[in-house]
Structure formats: structure tokens, C-alpha cells
Amino acid sequence: MDGFVDVSVGLTGFDSFDLHATGVAALYLETALDQVGTEAFERFLDELDAAGGDPGRLEGETSRDIARAITHLWYLGVWPQLARSVHTALGREKANVPFTVSPEAYTEGLVWRTFHGHPAGAKAPGFGTWSDPPPGAPPVPRVTAAGRPVGKPEEDREEEFQGDIS
Amino acid sequence: MSASPRADGQPAGGGRGTPPHHRRRYDVIVVGAGLSGTLVAKRLGDQGWRVLVLEAGTGTLDTWPGHLDAMNTYYAAAAKVPNSPYRPNAAAPSPDVLDLAGLPDGGFRASGYFVQNGALPYGSDYLRANGGTVMHWLGLTPRMHPEDFAVRRTFGYGRDWPLGYADLESHYRAAERQLGVAGDAQEQSEAIGLPFPEGYVYPMHRIPRSYLDDVVAAKIDGVPVQESADSPGTTLRVVTTPHARNSVPDARYDGGRGYRPAGAAGLPNYGERCVGNASCVPICPVQAKYNPLKTQATWDSRVTLVTRAVVSRVLADGNGRAIGVEYQAYDDPAAPVHTTHTAEADIVVLAAHAIENAKLLLVSGLAGHSGQVGRNLMDHPVLLTWGLMKHPVGPFRGPASTSGVESFRTGPARKRRAPFRIEIANWGWGWPAASPGSDVARLLGITGDSGQPRGRGVFGEELRRRLGGGIGRQFSLQFELEQEAEGRNRVTIDPRHRDRLGNPRPVITYDLSDRVKRGMAAAKAVSDRVFGLLEAEDRTVYGPGPFSPGHFRFEGQDFAFNGAGHGAGTHLMGDSRDSSVVDHWQRCWDHPNLYAVGCGSMPSVGTSNPSLTMAALALRSSERIHRDLTELHRPVTVRTGGGDRTAASRVPGPAPSPHSHPQQEVRP
């Protein structure tokens, strides 16, 4: 398990703490083993090891496609279609179709976190949060609605952030 | 909620999903439990009439466990399209946007429920389930503009309404109350020219603008743009859109009585505020967005809902009066097994969606005098443009669109090209390019066709950084064009094409007129100018291919359009029985006790998302149906001494004005 997460750190660019915290690492390991078989999976680990742990240096197309698939899984919760040649080479006895591993896998997709977002349809950030600039964005003047005390909640919110949690 | 025993001790008409064997006669039968049907049933039930609502689809969504099941289905769906949370139903099939695929050299192929034989695809879906298509609507509720009702008289194209904005204004307000609209009436009035009564405010304050709206407004507000070299400038302005979505109630509403938002069906104290799930289409997890199930929760016990009841025919006598309907009851949505039943009523209301209403009239051989049934099929063809801003804009947050540019909806340019409204899309390239999933696949080197060689792909920190930097800057614009009524765009039936229960599948012939295409060319020109003002990197590409069934070429330029889910016009209203299917009450000219309600009645659709107008029309028709029923029952009510229990029970109960209890109840 820890080995799988270690490999996944190199694939995804997220650290092991983040990956464990999704709660789906065991499910993904199980899925990968089920989809490509133990033999191909271990060959993938060996080749990745030989490439110094850098998936970008994987040369065998089968291992490279397994790297793509596991990364895709982490980012979206979806096991993708494998390259047709890889599907054939692995002699897989299952349909080569993409599928979402579980409803939770979708909501734990890492892609949303790359841009400080949340999965559409889950982990709702709260009323009006979409008005705030995302990290790295400049503030812009806001047109306020007539009759709506827009300024007040803003001030309140600033106060909330004045505390120090250390 | 709907199968409560009748207060007078008679057996209930039928429980949920159980055919009403005991009682075969109702005051009104409503076909379809979507937005229109639900509102008609609400009004008539409140006025004391016994209403049978027959819904072709299943009724699982109105319980909290059923809703959670739909959420999980959505999470697990490979493509998060509008119908993705809702289970397929072979007995009452729904069209799906995934039924269409573009061909490599242009053209399209259609599979699924619709049979399509037109030059271009009809790209919109709907949902046959309790609650109807409004279960997956975005929830935008702009009113139509006064000039939208008279496009023939004013601009020389399409068809005119037999009604005007002024006739509908009070019903717009009633619909805004029923749906719980958040908006800024003053802004709508100033920016668009919509007339409101003095001092009118919406039930709730407007939905806050997105950061993206503010970014766009800062760059384009007040800037005039020309859509072509010889056209006058049109001044751009970002305007907040009214939503049927829970915001902050406005204490000034209803003369200072305020407004209480309606929570979720099955969990009423939940969802009284939009919390920004960013999945309005296809499903709001907390149900802060209006859906008809909320209204159903307040139905009077005189309203009986029967789900899994596919109306197959409207029955009429030799004098053209509707008698009732024949319907097919089924238990298992996957098995082609049903039993056939009939139900009778004084008035039949078809509220099954524009295309299903037309289909039912055609199957039944009714309302045929004008020859217009099924014709004039309309939608809002949508042109998408997309690009990257210079800095992060926070995509995939909040409602799909919170503001738009309304400057191209009106005015003399309509004489030559279709008008359009521009929605600023808060969900990145979700619609135009299936982001963010496609971005991940592309960077990993995964091609759409698994037979093609794959790219090497990027991994690790570089992948994370490039995704974040790219997706975070995504935005898109959605141009919703008005499509005018054209007789050639139509729904027909063909006995060779049937569904599992033997009902005909809709055969659709669809195309876009040159005036719609000229509108798209103007929209693209405006988009180019806006992208320039935003200093955005334009990534818009229109070409043939599997994901562009709506591809076409016009005057040397490539375009691709999508459906908006706004099917309309198939039983349009007019002022003559020779040229229209229904009158201004949505009552069939040929059958005085048969109504066909919904967007199918609209002779023109303007550029406004049509659900609010549809709701206003349904509320207006309910008034006429109430009067019809009262007139029908007048002879019965004078028989006071007969002790005829049946006759006495037919007298409707006290009929409160539909406006006397403005506060929508929320049942515990």
C-alpha cells in the first residue's frame, strides 16, 4: 500500500499525505491490479524503479500506459481506456472501456485541487464564495446590487480571518 | 404525499405507482408531472378539483434516498451530461445528448430514442421522470422581452403571440413567487427595458456575481462594439441574471411580508441557500435550485399522482370532446410488460413536453384542423466560444452562469439576423471541451481513439502545475440564439419506429434557417471583439468530428452548435384555428376541454431561457381551466335537495384565490 502511494507521488505530483487523505488509495491499488494483472503491474514497478522513479523516463509502452492510467485514476477517479495495443498485449479478458471506480473516487479526484477548486456537485464551498478572487487572481471592482448590503458581510468575513490558529 | 385517502371517505384514486382502478373519473387529468403539469395540478387541487396526474417516468426522485441515489449515479457517470444522474427507462425512454455523434467529414449520426432525418441534428434532450426536465435545468429565469411576442409584426419573421407581455406580466410575478426567483428587478428594468410594476422586487436578492463576471464587466462595460463593418455600435454591459435558486430573501418582497425559501423535497429544512456545488445541471445536491417536487410537496390531497403510467392516447368522443386518456402502467422500467387502463375526466391537460405533447396529439388524431401539430419545432441553438484569461478566474465555481450580456436580444438588427443573449459561463470549458477530464487525458497523452498512438505524457509536479495553470484560466461564453417558427422543423410519427411499449418514437426533422446562421456569424464576431477586450487567448475551434454533430459551414466559415434543451413550438398558440393548434389559453381550438400546455405553445421563444415563461403560461391556463370546470359543474351545484352523494361530492370545495396564500408552504 505504502509502496503504491510512493509510486503515485511521482505520478501525480501530490505528496503521500494528500494521497492517503483521499481515502481511496487502497481502492485504486486494487483497481490497477484487477485491470492489468499482478504480473504486468509488477513489471511496471520494476521498470519505474529502473527509471529512477521518474514515470517520464519509462520506455516500455505497456508500463507507460499503466502509468497514464493510474495517474488518470488519481486525477479523475476514472480508469481510462488503455491503448488498444496495450490492451491486446496484456491479453485482458475485460472490456477496454473507461469507468468511474466509485462515486467517492469522482469526488476525490485530484484535478480540482490543481486550480483550488472543488469537485462539481460535492464539497460545496458555501453561498457567494464564487465571488471571491481565486488564489493568484487580482481583485477587481465589484458592482453591487441596489438594496443589498454587500459591504457588511465582506467586513465580517475579514474579521473572521484576523485570528491566528498557531 | 399524493396518495392520501380522500377526506370524503372514498378510496384514493390510486397510490403512487398503482393504477387507479377504484376511481376512474376525475375533474382533470394532467399528463406529465414536470414543471407545467405540477403547477396546473397545484392550482386546481388548491381550488378543490380532483386532479389525476399521470407521469410516464418513475417517481424515485421525490424521496431523499432516491435523490441520493441520483447523486451517486451522477458521480459515477462517465459523461456528466444533463440526464446522467437519472436512470434509463425502457418503458418511457428519454432522448440523451450522447445519442448524437458527428461524422469525420461533417454530418451526424443519431441513435437512441429520437429518429432524426433533418439536415442538422436537434441536439436537445428532456427527462421523463417525476419532476420532468426541470430536474436538470440550470435554473435561469429571465422574462421574455415585450418585443419578443410580436416578431412578425415588428421585424417580419416567425410567428406572433396572441398575447403580449402586459397580458402575462402578473403571471410572471406569480411564477416568480412559485419558483422562488432571486434577481434584481431594477437592474432588469434599466439594462433590458423590462417593465415591472412600480417598486417590484423579486422574492430573493440577486445571486452574487462570480469573480469572472466582475473581471469581464471591468473590461467590457460601456464599450460599444460593431458586429459587422456597416452596423451601428452596441454597448456592452454585464447584467446579473435572475435565477430560481435560493439566495438571501428580500425583506421588501410582497409589501414587506418577505419570502421563505423552499427547501429540498424529502428534507424540507435543507437547501434553503445555494452553497455553490457547481452542478446545477444536471443535479443540485442540496436542491437549492427550484424543482417541481418542491411544489408537489404542497399539493392538496385531492391531487393524485400516478407514476409509471405512460399515456398512449387521448380519448375523444364523436363531437370532439376529450373523454379521458388511455395509459400503460408498468412495474419494471427494464421489462417490456405493461397493463392498459383508461381514466376519464372533464378536462384533459397535456403537459408532457413539447415533443411528447405533439406525439400524443398525432397518435390520437386530434387537434389536426390547422395542420400545425408537430410543426414549428424550436430550440435555442447555442454557439460556444472559449479561451484562456491572463490570470486565474476561478472556474467550476458557483452556478453555471450568474450574469450575461443582454445587449443583442433586442433592436432592429433582428430584421436580418437572429438575436442572442450571451451567458458568461462559470464552468470553464466544461461544455465546449469536457474539461477538466479532457485536459487530464490530453496532458497524459491519452487520445480519444485508443487505436491512435499516444503521446509520451507528462507526470508528477509538471502535470499538476500545468493543469492548475491552464484550467484555472478557462472561461467560455454561451450564445443562445432565437430560432424562429418554421413549418419544416417538425416532429412526426412513423409506425415503423416504436419504443418498447409499442408507442411511436418521435421522428425529428430539423435545420437552422439562414437568419439563425447569420445570428451565429454575428455572435462569433461579437465574441472575437469581447475576447480582444479581455486580452484572452481564444481557443475556439469548430470542425467536423465525433464531438461536433452540430457542425456546419456558412458563408465560408465553420460553425458548431449545441441544443439548449429548450424544445418549443410544436403546438403553437395563435388567434385563429386555421393557423394554430391552441388558443391563448393553451386550449386546443378543435377540442374545448383539451389543453396542451408548455413550451410547445410558444409561437416565438425570444432569447430568454423559457421555463419561467412556460410556468407563467401554465398558471394563466389554470385560471381558465378553473373557470371551465366551474361552468361545467354549475348545473350540478343547483341540485341541492336530491341527496345525490356523487353530485354533491362533485361540487368543488371552497376555492381560495390562487393569490390569497402567497407563502409557499413547506410540509414538515
Would you kindly provide a written description of the structure presented here, covering whatever features stand out?
The complex is a heterodimer of chains A (166) and B (668). With 166 residues, chain A is an all-alpha fold. In chain A, 50% of the residues lie in helices and 2% in strands. Chain A has a two-stranded antiparallel ribbon. In chain A, helix 3 (25-36) packs across helix 4 and helix 4 (38-50) crosses helix 5 (61-76). Chain A is elongated, with a radius of gyration of 21 Å. Chain B has 668 residues and is of the alpha+beta class. Chain B has a single domain (26-241, 280-632), classed as FAD/NAD(P)-binding domain. In chain B, 24% of the residues lie in helices and 15% in strands. Chain B has 15 helices and 22 strands. In chain B, strands 8, 13, 14, 15, 16, 19, 20 and 21 form an 8-stranded antiparallel beta sheet that branches. In chain B, strands 1, 2, 9, 10, 11, 12 and 22 form a 7-stranded mixed beta sheet that branches. In chain B, strands 5-18-17 form a 3-stranded mixed beta sheet. In chain B, strand 1 (25-31), helix 1 (35-46) and strand 2 (51-54) form a beta-alpha-beta unit. Chain B starts with 24 loop residues before the first strand and ends in an 18-residue tail after the last helix. In chain B, 58% of the residues are buried. The chains are: A mainly alpha (166), B alpha+beta (668). Chains A and B meet through helix 1, helix 5, strand 2, helix 7 and helix 8 of A and helix 2, helix 6, helix 11 and helix 12 of B.
Proportion in helices of chain A: 40-55%
Task: Name the biggest interface.
Answer: A-B, 67 and 77 residues
Largest sheet of chain B: 8 strands, antiparallel
CATH architecture label of chain B? 3-Layer(bba) Sandwich
